[in-house]
Amino acid sequence: MLKYFYMVQYFTKKGLEKIKEELKDLKENAVRETKKLIKEAAAFGDLKENAAYHDARDKMSFIKGRIEQLECAINEAIIKEKTESETIQIGSEIKILFGSSEENYIITSPTESDILKNKISYCSPIGKELMGKRKGDKFKFNNSEIKILEIK
What we know:
Blueprint (H helix, E strand, L loop, with lengths): L8 E3 L1 H30 L8 H26 E3 L13 E6 L2 E8 L10 E3 L3 H6 L7 E4 L2 E8 L1
Parallel strand pairs: 1-2, 4-5
Antiparallel strand pairs: 3-4, 3-7, 6-7
Helix pairs in contact: 1-2
């Protein structure tokens, strides 16, 4: 069984609720559906050469790992609501000038980060650089200049 070792993670109340919802869905739906897939695939016979069976087992392993990851994050979570501040913090919605492109991001916990949804972890390399910065601050990141345009 995989073990995930977490330091304390800071979440917004809304972010922690989303993680709890994902955990509930995995436990109540994904596990049941995947068990059904395993059972159906096993009915095809010879398990050594049964690709559907092995795929379903791999899916179950992934789901169990994600459940464990979420449970660890929830157990170690500390709620940190955004305060009225002029600096970037967990929960901040920011607009930055990244090179010549304007980008919008939200600063989140590692567990709820998703770069495809413009959610950056405060623990990521760029997240660490952004934390505590103020509107107008500039810094270099990966040979690009970043300027903080807006903080909400």
